[in-house]
Amino acid sequence: MTSRVRRTVLPGGLRVITEQLAGVRSASIGVWVGVGSRDETATLHGCSHFLEHLLFKGTSERSALDISIALDAVGGEFNAFTAKEYTCFHARVLDDDLDLAVDVLGDMITSSLLTPEDVEAERDVILDEIAMHDDDPDDVVHNLFAEQAYGPAAPLGRPIAGTVGSIEALTRAQVARFYQRHYRPANMVVAAAGNLEHAQVVKMVRSAFGRRGWLTGDEPPVAPRRGAKRVRVHPGVIEATRPFEQVNLVLGMEGVHRNDDRRFALGVLNTALGGGTSSRLFQEVRERRGLAYSVFSFASHHADSGLVGVSVGCLPNKLDEVLAVVRTELSRVAAHGISEEELVRGKGQLRGGLVLGLEDSGSRMSRIGKAELVHDELLGIDAVMDRIGSVTLDEVQSVAKQVFGKPEILAVVGPS
Description:
Strand order of the largest sheet: 1-2-6-3-5-4
Strand content: 15-25%
Structural class: alpha+beta
Number of strands: 11
Helix content: 40-55%
Order of helices and strands: EEEHHEEHHHHHEHEEHHEEHHHHHE
Number of domains: 2
Largest sheet: 6 strands, mixed
CATH topology of the largest domain: Cytochrome Bc1 Complex, Chain A, domain 1
Shape: globular
Number of helices: 15
CATH architecture of the largest domain: 2-Layer Sandwich
Distance between the termini: 53 Å
Radius of gyration: 22 Å
């Protein structure tokens, strides 16, 4: 799939980045906003996610139903998500309907009404969503893991959606101020990929986002987020009792931040350790011992911190044995690294997953949008493949020793 990436900065600092793809008839657009749950004070906990919901509720030009109908009528896909360091609103449509998708998103982003009635109605929806997450053992245990790692008072340690108490306390005025402070051109990237022309997309964005003089001023684009210092990670154990059939656990340690050069070696290591059915953990925990149905490892990265860990769900009477096996495997990796065969397999799986994951316009849009917002550079796909391919056994062993030799963070959720 041949492609071409281009970038334009509009007045006010709004960045437009596109990737023209040959041989497709779809187009995807995303508005990436440089604000997430870690930007909230304790009194604003959950505000980013609350605002994400509210921007679908209507503008002076479109009601909430109008917004839904506009994309449904052309068979488009339309959604949004909030993360700890950014928020994204995205749509995927036929290439002929890209202008419509851009206009709807521009209207939502620049002209949301945030009416008191909508705030109250959506408050109940979010409380239902929090209850739903509290019934999901995987969500509960990963939230607990973050809470132990960063502390319950730290933004990175709090759940993205907020808590019942924080959502009930948020006022319309607080949400509106948050909207005005963070949803400004310089803090956003509009990314699009598919069968498109860059100049036409820029024209669409200029029109859709220029409502009521929104694209004014000469503020430069906000630079990628950088932490002044590493965020402290706290080892320890945290537990919660829930009436689940299984015990879910996450055992992990401090990892690396997203711009750390070791992230490629860690990616290969993570894949070999618990990234698929041939991985060490899957083979040892599930295939050989039958201790769990689901087991995988992960690595998460933020601007100034990162975590690595192993997630397992098992029967309560298997918990001690599962923990013993996982700890043994992590100790072995820390002491001896991985084998040459695992290195080759890990690289192949990582490279294949990268390429196969970029076979549609939506994933291409996400790649360029996120890179523009949170990184200093957009590495080409070939460059990323080369970086993965150049990882050596020594590099993997070094990062394994550095990471898996650190003190443990353990979160456990299950029946009493």
